[in-house]
Amino acid sequence: MLQGKIAIVTGSTSGIGLGIATALAAEGCDIMLNGFGDPAAIAALAKKLGDDNKVRVAYSPADMSKPADIRDMVAMAVEQLGGVDILVNNAGIQHVAPVVDFPEGRWDAVIAINLSAAFHGAKAALPHMTRKGWGRIINIASAHGLVASGEKAAYVTAKHGLVGLTKVIAIETANAGVTCNAICPGWVLTDLVKKQIEARAAAQGIPYQQAHDDLLREKQPMLQYTTPEKIGALAVFLCGEAASTMTGAALSIDGGWVAQ
Fold this sequence. Notes:
By secondary structure, the chain is α/β, with parallel strands linked by helices. The protein folds into two domains: 6-186 and 226-252, Rossmann fold; 189-225. 49% of the residues lie in helices and 13% in strands. The protein contains eight helices and seven strands, in the order βαβαβαβαβαβαααβ. The protein has helices spanning 15-26, 39-53, 67-81, 104-132, 153-172, 191-204, 208-217, 228-239; strands at 6-9, 30-34, 57-60, 86-89, 135-140, 178-185, 250-253. β4 (86-89), α4 and β5 (135-140) form a beta-alpha-beta unit. α3 runs parallel beside α4. The longest helix is centred in the middle third of the chain and has 29 residues, at 104-132. It is globular, with a radius of gyration of 18 Å. The termini are far apart. The model has no long low-confidence stretch (mean pLDDT 97).
């Protein structure tokens, strides 16, 4: 369905980003990976992704807090893969603290990586999409792009901003063959979250399954985690013809979190 399209997925060496990159590669997209990690492990990951799906895979180590790095990543995709048709702004970080104790440096970092990076990526990629008359921008927001939780001022602000940016890009590109949508996950069972569950179980002296369910129960009516694979499948749908008139939407995949 997406054979020959070229996709950049930021923060894609693990977790949700890797799930999305894998799903797009399975549909025939050439992929520009991005993220931090051991260079040998990333090289092996890129080779496997390419070999398994018979697509080209490149890698950019761009730091999402640096606009020049982001512009270079887009330029690298054009040079090495031939263009950019799909941009998935997924990279993100988190810091938890009350507003009065929130370190200013952490605020700046969360806003830069979770919000400003998406702006810089879209600004660099959009000319390539509009020239072709086809493009897809997918911003990975969060349930926290729609509702708030305490002690997450920077993250909630960034994700709300990302939903707003999504709407602006959608309006500006409405008749250019480009769509822009946001995916808003709730709890996602990544390795990071699994470690969080294990730490909670150890700290409270309770079984893993109880800690697993307790974490969900705090926010979601549905006691089931979303997976990177499910988010990847939703991203693939948004890139397809069936979603060609879906734009400016913030799509919840959150076990009923924001339905309450």
